[in-house]
Amino acid sequence: MKKYWTGVFGQVRAQQKRFIRDKMSLFFTFLFPLIFLLVFGSIFNNQSTSFDIAIINNSQTEFAKSFVKGAKDNAKDSILKIKDVKDMDEAREKMKRSELNGIIELPSDFGKVKGEGRDARPTGTINVLYAKGSEQTGSALTAVMNQIANKINMHMGQPEAPLKAAGKAVGDEQLKSFDYTFTGLLAFSLMSMGIFGLANQMPAEKQRGSYRRLRAAPFTSGQLIISMAIHYTIISLLSLTMMIVVGMLLFQFNMRGDWGIFVLMAVLAAFMMVGLGLLIGGWAKNENQSAPLSNLISFPMMFLSGAFFPIYLFPEWLRGATNFIPMTPITEGFRLVMTEHAGLVDVLPQIGTIAVWIVVIYIAAIKLFRWE
Questions:
Q1: What residue stretches are annotated with the ABC transmembrane type-2 domain (predicted)?
Q2: How far apart are CA 132 and CA 176, in angstroms?
Q3: What is the pLDDT of residues 314-359, one digit of tens each?
């Protein structure tokens, strides 16, 4: 056993020395992910000048119904972009994910007529709901609704403004678009490091005869797989750390969950993704075999794991398929911890799924490994 692990860690040190001397590897490991982050961060950190809102009408009055209809009819020429929702719960969930800037709520008494004869006028208060931490957005949206209410009041010739709008912060602090996307970028970074790096490197090493010489040492396939897994997991975590630091300093990413839980998930996720690269690269004889197999595995993970496109946008039949994507529990786990205050119990299903994938992947990687 001692000889086994002495060989493993000896190989880890050798790989680390080779890695440090390879300038191209250093660039693609550390600088390329940062360039990728800067491009996507600039896109998703951009704030829109329009407001995406939902209207929740709790009133049965004709005035309330006509108010909603008028708002939808004039949406094309307005800075208020109205999104359809089923109910208040769905609207709040979308606002939490930054899909909505605010919610316009019409109370049950909105539009009720007060007064008699010529003095009869509809009255009520328009409630403008916005996320905590988004006071500027809430103030701007409330001001817009007050302008709309004042125009209606002037049209009705009312000096005391029977219609008005009031703003109120609700729920948790709103996520920025970048915050929600950043978790997917981290998962994608781990996938790139694990699959594209190893899947190309290992066949090249086989063609140079490096592994044939190790086998004569003697050196088992298990020792080689474990040593490379340790080395590349460390490198992946260093790259991930750099991305998080840049995200927090440059794009003001706000970590909402527990760092300890995130570190646990990050280590397991990096170890699993490296295992996928070892499985592909260990089985392939050359790059002609590894390249198409890498694309075949990585593209479904990129587009079906929720890293760039939220799973709730997928059709029902496709959502079930995402459960069989190895990167899905990583994306979901990162997102739950980093954006939704999830605790250890909340992410146990994701951690358990990643652990199962690790066992399956590494057994397959050792069994299917080919020395040349």
A1: 138-372
A2: 12
A3: 777 777 778 888 888 998 888 888 887 888 888 899 999 999 999 9
| pLDDT value for 32 | 55
Whether 79 and 119 map to the same domain: the answer is: yes
**pLDDT score for 167:** 62
Judgement on whether residues 132 and 185 belong to the same structural domain of the protein: no
Please say if the pLDDT value at position 313 is more than 70. Answer: no
Q: Residue 77's domain spans which residues?
A: 51-173
Domain boundary among 121, 142, 173: 173
What spatial distance separates the first Cα and last Cα of the chain, rounded to whole Å?
26
> Quick one: 12 and 55 in the same domain?
no
Cα Rg of the chain, angstroms: 28
User: What is the per-residue pLDDT for 43?
Assistant: 46
pLDDT tens-place string over residues 185-200: 888 888 888 887 777 7
For the entire predicted model, the pTM comes to 0.60
Tokens of 317: 């039949």
Which parts of the chain are beta strand (E)?
51-57, 80-82, 102-106, 112-114, 121-132, 163-173
User: Do residue 215 and residue 324 come from a single domain?
Assistant: yes
* Same structural domain, 265 and 300: yes
**Which residues lie below 8 Å from residue 156, measured CB to CB, with a gap of 6+?**
121, 162
